[in-house]
Amino acid sequence: MALSPTARAAAYAQSTGEVFAWLLTVDHPDITPIRLTTDTDIVTSNGNIYTPFPMEIALPGSIGAQGGAARILLDSVDETVRNELRALTTSPTLTFELVLLSEPDTVIKGPIAYELFDSEIDRLFISASLVFRNAFREAYPGRFFNQKTAPGLF
């Protein structure tokens, strides 16, 4: 995706007044989407409202991310987010988008979708490992064929 002239100038400038912010959407069929941002103010992007929430994100290739997995650390200051995540029985999808606050409807990077792989939730923090869910991570073939599962082949 090509950067807008404003985003390119901000990225290459030695100093800038422009601010980049990550937008995070936690989505699952059992809950309404949770939308959070790394910015300190509410961000409206493409008609969605993102609530400020303290978090640290380590995407693959960045310091702290290991082996293609992403890591996220959320301050557990809001019981609503913590309780909704604890109540889920299957993994939610976490989607990241990077925007420039002066152009919040223009996504600079993303959407990058991950599946929650492992998490620890306590009173202070929500720590999670995230993985890509795609066909390359699935076993091939998806089924094993033997006399018991496919007697007609033998």
Task: Give an account of the 3D structure.
The chain is mostly beta strands and 154 residues long. It has a domain of 76 residues. It contains two helices and nine strands. A nine-stranded mixed sheet has the order 3-4-2-1-7-8-9-6-5. The longest helix is centred in the middle third of the chain and has 9 residues. The protein is globular. The termini are far apart.
Question: Which terms summarize this structure?
Answer:
single chain, 154 residues, mainly beta, nine-stranded mixed sheet, 2 helices, 9 strands, globular
Query: Within the largest sheet, what's the order of strands?
Result: 3-4-2-1-7-8-9-6-5
Encode the helix/strand succession as letters. Answer: HEEEEEEHEEE
Integer average pLDDT: 81
Q: Which class do the helix and strand fractions yield?
A: mainly beta
Q: What coarse outline follows from CA principal-axis ratios?
A: globular
Low-confidence stretches: none
Report the count of strand segments: 9
Q: What is the terminal-to-terminal distance? A: 50 Å
Measured by DSSP, the beta-strand proportion falls in: 35-45%
What profile does the largest beta sheet have?
Answer: 9 strands, mixed
The radius of gyration over CA amounts to 19 Å
What is the overall number of helices? 2
As a percent range, the share of helical residues equals 10-25%
